[in-house]
Write a structure and sequence with these properties.
The structure holds two protein chains of two kinds. By secondary structure, chain A is mainly β. Chain A has four domains: about 80 residues, no CATH class; about 90 residues, Phage tail protein beta-alpha-beta fold (3-Layer(bab) Sandwich); about 70 residues, Elongation Factor Tu (Ef-tu), domain 3 (Beta Barrel), CATH 2.40.30.150; about 50 residues. Chain A contains four helices and 23 strands. Chain A is flat, with a radius of gyration of 22 Å. The two termini of chain A are about 30 Å apart. Chain B is mainly beta. Chain B has one domain: Elongation Factor Tu (Ef-tu), domain 3 (Beta Barrel). Helices cover about 10% and strands about 65% of the residues of chain B. Chain B has a six-stranded antiparallel β-barrel. Chain B has a two-stranded antiparallel ribbon with strand order 6-7. The chains are: A mainly beta, B mainly beta. At the A-B interface, strand 1, strand 16 and strand 23 of A face strand 2 and strand 3 of B. Strand 1 of chain A pairs parallel with strand 3 of chain B.
């Protein structure tokens, strides 16, 4: 089989190497482009379309954050991040510390949307259920002296939801970092016609937590736990924040995070023949008898590497 | 028998010419597969490797100057001319000789230095 590599990047010519990385826990995807010349400068919009002549697609849309001119290689290196870089770079610092950004009795999706509006973004349409209501007391839910991204990641940590950008839209969804009744898009396999260049399957309990403790606004507190046959001793995670101001919210935070964290970690790390259609947060089936994998997996992190060594997609997936 | 070519207006007495072009492909190996996967990145420029004789230090230095100044010149051959060529590498070895007739003109070692040279020429627009 022989394919001809393809790359089309806004304002770039003589494209040498491209690397694009996106992941479940990364609020902003990033990309690096090495090229002979470019018309782009800092803050300019960039779109990266890579693959083969026969099959290619846009894998990244964002902004140029760093530009390096390198010699003797005589090339330009662009470092880029997707639109959620606005949330990373925007630091909440109220003019009056006594009057920070405050939400009263507001659902978590609306809080996230309100936070994003501070940096000129908004959520794409969609709903999440159940709603976690914040700011039910007189003080409300206050946000100050942190970046929008930090605030949103905290929201995600208490709700078990995830916020990410795709094709220029921002989403806040219920998406667990594992296969949850999903239908796989395709099968990755070895052998003739396969696409797996290397594969490693790992099980561990490093990040497993079978006991969750939540400390909210005094005197709110809650605990949830469950048995886990793989642990030699209970492993505890603590979520503590004044934004948790209802007993029912504290209990919901514990329940959501227990479901999220009380799982055996099964991680597959693979190099695949380059495939620009593979996105983070999607589900595939993996078939390889040597590592004992005949299972559906959730793409936790994906990295497309295109360049002088060919086009390879590296995937970290969870089963 | 060498034939007379021109590098811009400098006489070259060429005895050998090789033309090459590199094709860049990545070769990937799928686990347990029996055939490779090739990914075509692109092709390089045509390269001309020439070997022959040049006369006089002035001509040798002019060619060397073109190489270090990255100057594009036209190479005129008996079969046509090639424009926009640059010198990618150049090497000249002084030759001992008693007497020489090239293109109907006679030369002697005590008056005219003779160099055997090799050069790689590339098209760079």
């Amino acid at each position: 089989m022989s394919e001809t590599l393809y790359a089309d990047i806004t304002g770039c010519s003589g494209i040498l190497d491209v690397s694009v990385e996106a992941g479940y826990s990364m609020i902003s995807a990033n990309a690096t482009v090495d090229c002979a010349s470019t018309s782009l400068g800092l803050g300019d919009a960039i779109s990266i379309d890579i693959g083969y002549d026969s099959a290619h697609q846009v894998v990244f849309e964002g902004y140029v954050k760093k530009k390096e001119v390198i010699t003797p290689a005589r090339m330009v290196r662009l470092t880029c991040q997707d639109i959620l870089i606005r949330a990373v770079d925007f630091f909440l610092a109220a003019d009056d510390p006594e009057a920070p950004l405050t939400f009263h009795s507001t659902g978590d999706r609306e809080v996230v949307d309100g936070l994003l509006s501070q940096c000129g973004l908004s959520l794409a349409s969609g709903a999440v259920s159940p709603t976690f209501t914040l700011g039910t007391n007189a003080d409300g839910a206050k946000f100050n002296l942190q970046s929008i991204a930090e605030a949103i990641q905290f929201m995600c940590s208490i709700t078990g939801r995830v916020c990410y950008a795709d094709a220029g839209n921002v989403y806040y969804v219920d998406r667990k970092p594992y296969v949850d009744g999903d239908t796989p898009i395709d099968t990755w396999t070895t052998g003739a016609g396969g696409n797996i260049i290397s594969i490693q399957r790992e099980t561990n309990t490093q990040n497993v937590r079978n006991r969750i403790v939540c400390y909210g606004k005094t005197p709110i507190k809650a605990t949830a736990s469950a048995a886990n046959p793989y642990l030699v001793v209970d492993q505890t995670a603590v979520i503590a924040h004044e934004l948790v101001d209802l007993q029912s919210l504290a209990e919901a935070v514990c329940a959501v995070n227990l479901e999220l964290l009380n799982r055996l970690q099964i991680t597959l790390t693979m190099d695949l023949l380059g495939d620009s259609s593979i996105k983070a947060r999607s589900v595939y089936h993996v078939s390889n008898s040597w590592v004992g994998s005949e299972e559906d997996v959730f793409v936790y992190k994906v990295s497309h590497s295109w360049g002088q060594s060919g086009f390879v997609t590296n995937v970290t997936a969870t089963a | 028998m060498a034939s007379k070519w021109l590098w811009n207006s400098i006489d070259l007495w060429i005895s050998e010419e090789d033309i090459s072009r590199e094709i860049k492909r990545a070769e990937l190996f799928v686990v347990d597969a029996t055939t490779s996967v090739f990914q075509m990145l692109g092709s390089g420029s045509r390269k001309y490797s020439v070997k022959g004789l040049i006369l006089t230090d002035t001509n040798r230095d002019s060619i060397e100057a073109d190489s270090i100044a990255n100057t594009a010149r036209t190479l005129t051959t008996p079969y046509g001319s090639i424009a926009n060529l640059k010198i990618n590498s150049f090497k000249a070895n002084a030759k001992q000789y008693a007497g020489l007739t090239l293109g109907g003109a006679s030369y002697t070692a005590d008056v005219t230095p003779l160099y055997e040279f090799t050069a790689e020429l590339i098209v760079d627009v």
